[in-house]
Amino acid sequence: MCPALTRWISSGRLVVSACVRRHSSITTELIDNMDKKATWDRFYAESSSRTPTFKNFEWFFGFDVVQDFIMPLLQTKSDMDAPVQVLDMGCGTSALGPCIYRQSPVPVHVTCADISPVAVRLMQEHVRAKAIQPHNLSSKLRFVELDCTQLHEHYGSSSVDLIVDKGTTDALLRSKEGKGKAGLVLKQCLKVLRSSGTLLQFSDEDPDARLLWLETEAQEPGVMAADVGVQEVGELRGVCYYCYEVTRRPVVQ
């Protein structure tokens, strides 16, 4: 998300910036309703109508900033018998998923999922037009319309190796009615992750707040379902970003 808009949402104060003005017609809707499908349909439709050619819209930052957090995990989760199953959750029109597909030396099946069919259609058209090719010929890339609170309807238990969340949880936590949905999404992620599978959350939220929330929400009755850690991504445009790593604990038979 644009840093100026992020600071505005977090603090409740109006920050006058080019980013806010560029989407001024839906700024209030974004703040209050970032958990709603209609909000994002409108956002991506309006964004695409402003430029004659498609351009990826990156919340926070692009793939180049976080590739060192993602690519080594693909290597560790690689299995000779099956591709690494990757979910880019709340992909919007980001290039992150296609970059993983294009650069991963190990075979990956990348699913880019978003609640907005507008974003999904834009990305499908873009990838077809660009004829993006994978690094590994066994890799696959697809785009699907998906409500991330209902992952269980699209994935079986223990079926995903890596989930990447760049701003999706932040959007839910900062919307008027989204905090409960954010907790549900985390539990859904833990359900569909394989044993030792990993969820990466990229966020500008301070670790004092996010770590406590993650540790609380990742509990199953009487036991922690996951191990939680954090690394600093770095400061960009005056905002410090973090990578929160949530790893599903192995199931004890």
From TrEMBL:
Q: Which GO terms describe its molecular function?
A: methyltransferase activity
Classification via SUPFAM superfamilies: S-adenosyl-L-methionine-dependent methyltransferases (SSF53335)
Catalytic activities: N(6),N(6)-dimethyl-L-lysyl-[citrate synthase] + S-adenosyl-L-methionine = N(6),N(6),N(6)-trimethyl-L-lysyl-[citrate synthase] + S-adenosyl-L-homocysteine + H(+); N(6)-methyl-L-lysyl-[citrate synthase] + S-adenosyl-L-methionine = N(6),N(6)-dimethyl-L-lysyl-[citrate synthase] + S-adenosyl-L-homocysteine + H(+); L-lysyl-[citrate synthase] + S-adenosyl-L-methionine = N(6)-methyl-L-lysyl-[citrate synthase] + S-adenosyl-L-homocysteine + H(+)
Cited InterPro entries: Lys/N-term_MeTrsfase_sf, Methyltranfer_dom, SAM-dependent_MTases_sf
Where is this protein primarily located?
mitochondrion
Where in the cell is the protein located? Mitochondrion
Origin superkingdom: Eukaryota
Q: Which PANTHER family match?
A: CITRATE SYNTHASE-LYSINE N-METHYLTRANSFERASE CSKMT, MITOCHONDRIAL, SAM-DEPENDENT METHYLTRANSFERASE SUPERFAMILY PROTEIN
Tell me its family.
Belongs to the methyltransferase superfamily.
UniProt protein name: Citrate synthase-lysine N-methyltransferase CSKMT, mitochondrial
**Species in which this protein is naturally found:** Channa striata
